[in-house]
Design brief:
Blueprint (H helix, E strand, L loop, with lengths): L11 H4 L5 H4 L28 E2 L8 E4 L11 E6 H6 L3 H10 L3 H13 L4 H11 L14 E6 L3 H16 L3 E6 L3 H10 L5 E5 H13 L11 H15 L1 E3 L9 E6 H7 L4 H7 E2 L1 E5 L10 H8 L3 E6 L5 H9 L4 E5 L9
Parallel strand pairs: 1-9, 4-5, 10-11, 10-12
Antiparallel strand pairs: 2-8, 3-6, 3-7, 8-12
Helix pairs in contact: 4-7, 6-7, 9-10
Length: 347
């Protein structure tokens, strides 16, 4: 994320329920919502004057993410992070990694995660199949001859799969590429900056921007990451130069906070976006980790940015099995998930 799903890196299999607090904390805490996060069953009046109907939950196993069309969330697109000295000595390295970025979008990332997390295939096998199916093997199999590259991958499936995809592409170009399991960001980032044990890591644009921003400019530095991908990558690039890092192209694949409903609920109310939801429904039941009632990217942000109204908040987990199960059972109407979760329905 390594701290699970903190946008530093995540361990889906063990403690996914701890996740969203850290990403939500990228910004300063906003004014707490009118719900209390300490227990389920608290109420919130939300925005006044809503004319939308009260919409009961529609149980169902299929979950879909509603588009964050007003960009409430900080972007967290997958981006190759590379030791600057390594990249300077080997100008062909980043273009090879960029071929992976071009082949990735969020639906593809969901499918990759589904193969590993739901269908229980290995990250290595899934990566190999992906590289083959997308024809990512370079035509020049000698470009990396005699060059060694160690790719760092965290001990959660998404990072391991991405790391192995990088490795498969580099191996096809003749590199001696290996994948090394890495620890938390505090431990691995200095190694990446020095280019010692690792030279490449599949990273997340928003999280890494804020991590370096706080390290360089202090814990209270104003946020550089935002809902604008281009501006966030520009900030990341500038910060990276100060610590010895450079970056490839950000992919269209994002693993960030998102809000989901059941497919049945979305179909019943013709929902594609969170704005659609605000127009169609009021008195929603929101489920998430307990921090949600106080974090600006969660309940307060949904109320302020979209005008969503909530009759109840249920304190569950952040993108974990409790929230997803509550959605499927119809105990909540809207739940905090992660946008690349392998259990989501792709469009």
């Amino acid at each position: 994320m390594i701290t699970p799903r903190t946008r530093a890196f995540r361990t889906r299999s063990t403690t996914v329920a701890l996740a969203a607090g850290a990403l939500l904390a990228l910004g300063a805490c906003g004014t707490p919502g009118s719900s209390s996060g300490a227990s389920g069953g608290s109420t919130s009046s939300g925005s006044a004057g809503s004319t939308a109907a009260s919409c009961p939950a529609v149980p169902g196993n299929a979950l879909v993410v509603l588009q964050d069309d007003k960009k409430l969330q900080t972007v967290d697109n997958v981006i190759p992070a590379v030791n600057a000295q390594t990249a300077a000595a080997d100008p062909g390295l980043i273009p090879l990694l960029d071929t992976v970025s071009k082949a990735l979008d969020t639906n593809t990332l969901i499918s990759l995660n589904k193969s590993v997390d739901v269908e229980r295939k290995s990250s290595v096998d899934v990566a190999t199949q992906f590289v083959q199916s997308k024809n990512l093997a370079p035509t020049d199999s000698t470009a990396g001859k005699g060059k060694k590259v160690a790719i760092g991958a965290a001990d959660f499936s998404e990072s391991a799969t991405l790391g192995n995809i990088y490795a498969q592409v580099l191996k096809a170009a003749g590199y001696d590429a290996t994948v090394t399991t890495i620890g938390n960001r505090e431990a691995y980032l200095p190694a990446l900056e020095k280019g010692q044990q690792i030279q490449v890591v599949p990273e997340y644009a928003g999280t890494l921007t804020e991590f370096i921003n706080k390290a360089v400019n202090g814990a209270n530095a104003p946020a550089k990451a935002s809902g604008d991908l281009a501006a966030t990558v520009q900030a990341l690039t500038t910060l990276g130069k100060q610590v010895g890092l450079t970056f490839g192209t950000a992919s269209d694949a994002a693993d960030q906070n998102a809000f989901a409903v059941t497919k049945g609920f979305a179909d019943a109310h013709h929902l594609k976006t969170l704005s659609d939801l605000a127009k169609a429904c009021s008195g929603l039941i929101l489920g998430a980790g307990p921090e949600c009632t106080e974090r600006p990217f969660c309940q307060p942000g949904l109320e302020k940015t979209y005008g969503l109204t909530f009759s109840q908040f249920k304190s569950l987990d952040a993108g974990g099995p409790l929230t997803k199960a509550a959605l499927q059972k119809g105990d909540i109407t809207l739940g905090l998930v992660f946008s690349s979760d392998g259990s989501l329905v792709t469009s």
